[in-house]
């Protein structure tokens, strides 16, 4: 069964294996930490998860609030934080809320959405509500970084290459001696609503050879460039940069990512 918001708040196992799956593979942490440095004020990360980006930001010396809907993801984050020195812990505030409707009672110079958390908002109403809330939490001239994937057309139609399970993580040791392997596949296409139903499949291999199969199933929205440009403008933002990857290369035909850096220019609209 597909879950809203990635299933992170419904399926505990997802949080438990998240860092094993992504820690070493994502190349985005320095990009976000550098923006926190440049912004020079407090950062808000929407969908902070296990703190994969949040904790390095605080270790680098910057104050950061992490907001996430998933109790399990935040639990992992708290557990990792408990192993950090007091000064790092002091720089982090965690909030369990929906990014479509939040009030942290703080203002930020930077709001980020690392690793596509905004793509868990399937409907236009949710996206607008999130941008409006974000606008209200930014200081004038503050920045929003919207981190999305750059849609690759063969993945948006029923192409058998992506409907069968594709290896996503080769067999990898877990700290307790078990092993994890992951595959992913697209199970349904909703082109008229611009989202796909995705499954990430976790194979847990126990020391006695027993194997478990667990499924994280969720809808995932894709965005096209000019749609995002219009949406940002409507909600009081001006795009100052558009990157195709975390090395800050410009968006091009083959770019894997679509990273908007937008400055707050006005109040936007009420949803
Ligand atoms: C792919 S993870 C990214 C986590 C983290 N930003 C990172 O880069 O590792 C997406 C996160 O967004 C969170 N999320 C999804 N929908 C959300 C919503 N509506 N409000 C708050 N968090 C949400 C999930 O719980 C999950 O932790």
Explain how this protein is built:
By secondary structure, this protein is α/β, with parallel strands linked by helices. It has two domains: 4-150 and 222-264, 3-Layer(aba) Sandwich (Rossmann fold); 153-221, N-terminal domain of TfIIb (Single Sheet). Helices cover 27% and strands 32% of the residues. It has helices spanning 12-22, 29-39, 54-59, 71-81, 86-90, 124-137, 160-163, 225-234; strands spanning 43-46, 64-68, 92-96, 108-112, 138-149, 166-173, 179-190, 195-205, 211-221, 237-243, 257-264. The strands form two sheets. It has a seven-stranded mixed beta sheet with strand order 3-2-1-4-5-11-10, with helices on both faces. It has a four-stranded antiparallel beta sheet with strand order 6-7-8-9. The protein starts with 11 loop residues before the first helix and ends in a 7-residue tail after the last strand. The relative contact order is 0.15. The mean pLDDT is 95. S-adenosylmethionine binds at residues 5-6, 8-9, 47-49, 52-53, 68-70, 73, 98-100, 114-117, 120. S-adenosylmethionine binds next to loops.
């Amino acid at each position: 069964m597909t879950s809203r918001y990635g299933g992170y708040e419904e399926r505990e196992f997802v949080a438990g294996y998240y860092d094993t799956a992504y820690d070493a593979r994502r190349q985005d942490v320095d990009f976000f930490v550098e923006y926190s440095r440049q912004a020079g004020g407090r950062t808000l990360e929407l969908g902070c998860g296990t703190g994969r980006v949040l904790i390095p930001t605080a270790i680098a010396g910057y104050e950061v609030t992490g907001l996430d809907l998933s109790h399990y993801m935040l639990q992992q984050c708290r557990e990792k934080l408990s192993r950090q020195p007091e000064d790092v812990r002091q720089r982090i505030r965690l909030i369990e809320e929906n990014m479509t409707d939040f009030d942290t009672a703080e203002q930020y110079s930077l709001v980020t959405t690392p690793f596509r958390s905004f793509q868990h908002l399937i409907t236009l109403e949710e996206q607008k509500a999130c941008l409006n809330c974000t606008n209200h939490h930014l200081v004038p001239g503050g920045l929003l970084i919207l981190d999305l994937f750059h849609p690759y057309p063969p993945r948006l139609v029923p192409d058998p290459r992506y409907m069968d399970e594709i290896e996503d993580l080769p067999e990898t040791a877990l700290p307790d001696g078990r092993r994890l392997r992951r595959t992913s596949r697209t199970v349904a296409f909703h082109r008229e609503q611009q989202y796909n139903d995705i499954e990430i499949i976790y194979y847990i291999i126990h020391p006695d050879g027993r194997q478990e199969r667990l499924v994280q199933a969720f809808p995932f929205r894709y965005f096209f460039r000019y749609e995002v440009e219009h949406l940002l403008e409507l909600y009081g933002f001006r795009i100052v940069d558009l990157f195709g990857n975390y090395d800050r290369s410009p968006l091009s035909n083959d770019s894997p990512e679509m990273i908007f850096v937008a400055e707050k220019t006005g109040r936007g609209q009420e949803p």
